[in-house]
Amino acid sequence: MAKRVTGPEIEKLIQLLAKVPGLGPRSARRAALHLIKKKDQLLGPLGHAMGEAYDKVKICSCCGNVDTSDPCTVCTDVQRDQTVIIVVEDVSDLWALERAGAMNAAYHVLGGTLSPLDGIGPDDLNIKGLIDRVAKGGIREIIIAVNATVEGQTTAHYITDHLAGLEVKITRLAHGVPVGGELDYLDEGTLSAALRARTAI
After folding, report:
1. I need a labelling partner for 37 at 20 to 30 A (CA). Which of 53, 77, 88, 153 fits?
2. If you average pLDDT over residues 167-184, what whole number do you get?
3. Partners of 86 in the β-ladder
4. Does the predicted model carry a pTM greater than 0.90?
């Protein structure tokens, strides 16, 4: 059994950092040591920023985004086309689409996908909120931007079925060859999807 070389406060910091996605125990130790070495420049400001985030971060009651205001910055942005809603699985997907800057639309965060094996049903996701938003009127298009997994496609079909009859156009992201991708390196499913979704040039 390894001997302890630090106090319990540092051990706790390492254990908490190790729970962050992308950081294992070894990376967490390196990150903790770096923070401690830069105590005044990093550790103090980080602790303060985390405390402020803990106090002020909210979940948007409209779309499910995380922000320090409710409704969030995206929902209150008058420059956005609020008649188009992009449906995403998680906030990280919303942020990724915003980084791409391809569309200036509203969003709706589901909070995951349907997964009966994991016990995740419709009531565990923010699907009812989406249906309510569309039912109020004023929405002309729903873009379903979920991952191309079995769970993602199941969720997309469920949403499509429950929006039927609400007079809204429903589209989904195209699947296929990525920009800069080489055909020889792509899997058969991606190639099949690309052929089915071919477009005129």
Report:
1. 53
2. 83
3. 107, 143
4. no
